[in-house]
Sequence to fold (646 residues):
Amino acid sequence: MSSSKLAEVKKNYGRIRNYVNGRWIESSSTQALNVVNPATGETIAQVPLSTEKEVKEAVTAAKEAFGDWRETPPLSRANYMFKLKNLMEEHFEELARILVQEEGKTIDESRGEIRRGIENVEVAAGIPSMMMGYNLENISPGIDEEAVIQPLGVFCVVAPFNFPSMVTLWFMPYAVATGNTYIIKPSEQVPLSQNKLLELVDEAGFPPGVVNLVNGAKETVEALLENPDIRGVSFVGSTRTGKYIYKKATENGKRAQCQCGAKNFMVVMPDAELDKVLPGLMTSFYGCAGERCLSGSVLVPVGDIYKELTERFVKAASKLKVGYGLDESVQMGPVISKRHMERVLGYIDKGIQEGAKLVLDGRGLKVDGYPEGFFIGPTVFDEVRQDMTIAKEEIFGPVTSIVRAKNLDDAIGLIHASPYGNAASVFTSSGKVARDFKYRVQCGNIGVNIGINAPMAFFPFSGFKESFFGDLHGQGRDAINFFTDRKIVISRWP
Amino acid sequence: MELRTFGGVLRFAMELEASAEELYKNLVSRIGDEDPVTTELFTKYSREHSRRHRLLEEIRQRNINEVLLEPISGIESGTYTVNTDASGKMDSAKAINTAADAEEKTAGFYEDTYKVGRAALGEAAIAFKRFQQENRERERALRSPGCNERST
Fold:
């Protein structure tokens, strides 16, 4: 009993295809990249780097589909969302396991990601009520005014590696439910779960051209950004790339929403109940191997809780089981790639060089049975100063920096010194402290006694400062507003 | 093995339900035709464990989110494992005792896990509480003099 290793969906997925105009198409590109399982180091698929011509064909298909799709009543469009939701529920475990294979996260983390994705499809299924406009009679004698909400055309997403399935669903369901057509460009590192998603889109019977998928890398993104028929782009990824995409998209007259990097501070007040706080901190700092834009990165003990918190945090972190995410007893998986592993290890070296005290060393971790995996164990630096690289830059790995603060003002000062503003949390028993924190802190996603402040589908996924470029965020009403415009009609009948 | 994740706990609970289903099927085959009343009762319990297994799967699928990814500690699966061995004939009285022991053990798992992981289990905690009550009711019924007298 309790042999907890789940089976891989497939050992190898072969060369994956694009989905354009309702058909699966082999890319004509001679260039392809390997998709590597981060836990085993094995190649599990090849992803083609689609050509500019293939991007154009996808955009043309989406543009041609837009007319009829826009004419389709919102209630009918909502029904496609219900179909997609049901299919995702049916294939839930398969989707989750594919995600483990390509991304490396644990099976529970993958299930959680698929669930978050489904929730967005569910919210978008409510489009008949969410897309209603508004009106006012008699703005002048005998004259009425109304605002109607209309779709715009073709949109696209450039998806990240860390939440390949969920992030696409922060946007696509809203875009399509409001009457637009869509192109998905998955991360070339993790295209498989979105490939599966498109199989379900196909099975749900979406009309050809409404949802399309084009595999590729930088050149594919460039082709999308330069195509005049793309009305807007959604992006999630690093700040450097996000800034570039935002600039280029807006220069080309497109809407853009770019959710970017982060450096998240977890502030623990002296009155925090550590028994309750520690599990939340573990999932915050080490969940998804720290590759979440909501992950805790800097732990800020305030006042005299420092000693006990540090000791217990290190002890709890050292007990986390690291391994292949298909083993249900594993609590943290590998990082995405060898290259990324080297980058994270580089930050650990930098921390040591700059004088931080390494109190838990995750380097050189060996996981039984997976010698080629990209594993880094939970790592903790104490005595980190604000000016050190590891306290300032986004590491995107399982590395915690402990920076002490004298009081709440001091802690908030640390947060505000960061160029990022994605998330921050406070752990406290005091309502006043919690209120002060949520009122004052300039971050888009605030947690009170919560380590991962992930907004549900009916709230926007926020982000301030260098963590977000644009006006309207993903998910919920923000997404609907991003994918639509308001047309004003003023009428007088003689 | 210590169960330290939401998925691990749910998976073990499903394994317990599958074991209980199998145990009752085995006991039915071991009693043979000698005691139709007990056979009918065990068949019913087997179906109920199967239904609970499905419910747990649905709960896992519906409920998992970031909060449920927090680590859990203090639940050792080995304490609650149910033996489903099925060889040879068994009289009804012994079969009823075996079933009652299994129900007791399973109830213990749900009870302890509910205490330890209530906050981390979300909707699953409600099911665990209900399952524990059902197990206890079955255990009481199986250990009641009426049930044992009938079988002796």
The CA atoms of residues 299 and 402 of chain A lie 5 Å apart. The interface with chain B takes residues 1-2, 4, 89, 92-93, 106-109, 111-112, 115-116, 279-280, 282-283, 287, 316, 320-321, 328-331, 450-452, 454 of chain A (CB under 8 Å). The first strand of chain A starts at residue 18 and ends at 20.
